[in-house]
């Protein structure tokens, strides 16, 4: 989970540099797992709020996850992360829906400023080849104008190819702009003391120096947020 925080912070930093990250966002985290993406977003905005005490920040988050065990973890961690990021000028709301993402995705069109997905479109997660093709279009429809779509997938070549295919698919829709084409990046793991402790306790059996991932960012509408 600590390594995964950087996966969310990198595209958020890209958006911040492009002046395309709003201060008041309605956010959809699709396939939220134990809450990594949502909590990462909170931490990122907490730093922005601390550095900009004269501005108000609001995150209205909806996290959708099918697995009940992940939902329980996210709900149990909510209070801990919320207290650690809380500032006077940052307001956070969270709704956790235990639903299948493909059933949920068809609802609430045009409602969100930011939609995030992590590790749900690749071949390790989907059982039908049509789903990675249909879901990005549904997510496009769930965005407001302007709105931002962040896609995060594993770093292996077969997973990276999914983002390239989605880029080609969304290129057919002039309203969608690819502001950050598919990229591959790595998180160094050597400095994470938590992982070192897990290895010493023999509860982490695969030693990795880096955690590779790929990501892409799309915007609906070309105005600055």
Question: What topology emerges from the helices and strands here?
Answer:
Layout (H helix, E strand, L loop, with lengths): L1 H16 L6 E7 L5 H16 L5 E9 L2 H18 L4 E9 L2 H4 L7 E7 L12 H12 E12 L2 H14 L5 E13 L4 H8 L9 E11 L5
Parallel strand pairs: 1-2, 1-4, 2-3, 4-5
Antiparallel strand pairs: 5-7, 6-7
Helix pairs in contact: 1-2, 2-3, 5-6
Written overview of the protein:
The chain has 225 residues and is α/β, with parallel strands linked by helices. It has a single domain, classed as 3-Layer(aba) Sandwich (Rossmann fold), CATH 3.40.50.150. Strands 3-2-1-4-5-7-6 form a seven-stranded mixed beta sheet. The two termini are 29 Å apart.
Main sheet record: 7 strands, mixed
Which structural class should the secondary elements be placed in?
Answer: alpha/beta
What oligomeric state is this? single chain
Q: If helices are DSSP runs of H or I spanning 4 or more residues, what is the number of helices?
A: 7
Q: How confident is the prediction overall: mean pLDDT?
A: 84
What is the overall shape? globular
CATH topology: Rossmann fold
Going by CATH, the architecture would be 3-Layer(aba) Sandwich
Q: What is the H/E order?
A: HEHEHEHEHEHEHE
